[in-house]
Design brief:
The complex is a heterodimer of chains A (120) and B (107). By secondary structure, chain A is mainly beta. Chain A has no helices and 11 strands. The chains are: A mainly beta (120), B mainly beta (107). Chain A binds chain B through residues 35, 44-47, 50, 59, 61-62, 95, 100-101, 104-113, and chain B through 1, 32, 34, 36, 38, 42-46, 49, 55, 87, 89, 91-92, 94-101.
Chain lengths: 120, 107
């Protein structure tokens, strides 16, 4: 069974940093592109970042470009999201998600998410 | 960035009803569109990919159609477990974008 388990969320002050982790199991991690998607409380889904299977190519939403860094450790089946200069508007549940297929594709499955709250 | 709009934003329906949700892209995305279902407190679940392909394990009452800029998700006979919020997503180009969602609740 494919599983994605996020951790690392919590309460952080504006301007602070946090690193999220997503541990994957049940599939060949090195073969798949991985993603982060967030959902602010009561709001819709917002794509945050994508990393290719080797870690060489990354993509970011404009809203996080320059502040967030996605990375992966294929030896640990883990994808990370380093979040710096956090703002109140970054408050959200952060989900990691796997590409469904090998090419550019939708996301399946998704992890349950980890809540990040940015507040003083 | 490619913008996605959904209509309606919400709807009330009864068990057994046929439900149709529309997603429109601001530019052509071929068939690079997916539909997700999300229930409160849960992660989104992939229902439809490539505009019309049913994800494994998803009931056949769900179907998708469309291409280029106009897409629809249809639930042929709404069941109690289908009350949820539905999102479309384009994966044609970065930044990936989602529609604002359509909430389906009980009439």
């Amino acid at each position: 069974e494919v599983q994605l388990l996020e951790s690392g969320g919590g309460l952080v002050q504006p301007g602070g940093s946090l690193r999220l982790s997503c541990v994957a199991s049940g599939f060949r991690f090195t073969s798949y592109v991985m993603n982060w998607v967030r959902q602010a409380p009561g709001k819709g889904l917002e794509w945050v970042s994508t990393i290719d299977n080797s870690g060489a190519t990354t993509y970011y939403a404009d809203s996080v470009e320059g502040r967030f860094t996605i990375s992966r450790d294929n030896s640990k089946n883990t994808v990370y999201l380093q979040m710096n200069s956090l703002r109140a508007e970054d408050t959200a549940v952060y989900h990691c998600a796997k590409y469904y297929d090998f090419g550019r594709s939708p996301f399946d499955p998704w992890g349950q998410g980890t809540l990040v709250t940015v507040s003083s | 960035a490619i913008q996605l709009t959904q209509s309606p934003s919400s709807l009330s329906a009864s068990v057994g009803d046929r439900v149709t949700i529309t997603c429109r892209a601001s530019q052509g995305i071929s068939s690079s569109l997916a539909w997700y279902q999300q229930k409160p407190g849960k992660a989104p679940k992939l229902l439809i990919y490539d505009a019309s392909s049913l994800q494994s394990g998803v009931p056949s009452r769900f179907s998708g159609s469309g291409s280029a800029t106009d897409f629809t998700l249809t639930i042929s006979s709404l069941q109690s477990e289908d009350f949820a919020t539905y999102y479309c997503q384009q994966f044609k180009s970065f930044p990936f974008t989602f529609g604002p969602g359509t909430k389906v609740d009980i009439k």
